[in-house]
Amino acid sequence: MSGNHEISPQHCAKKGLSIHKRYKKLLYALFTSIFSILSIIFIIYFLLHPSKPEFSLKEVDIYQLNLFTHPQLVNSSIQFTLLSNNPNQKVGIYYDKLVVYASYKKQQITDYTSLEPFYQDHDESNLLTASVTGNGVPVTTSFGHEVLRDTTAGKVVLNIKVNGWLRWKVRSWVSGKYRLNVNCVAIMPLGPSIPSGPLSSRQGTQCSTTM
Question: By three-state DSSP, how is residue 180 classified?
Answer without folding.
Answer: strand
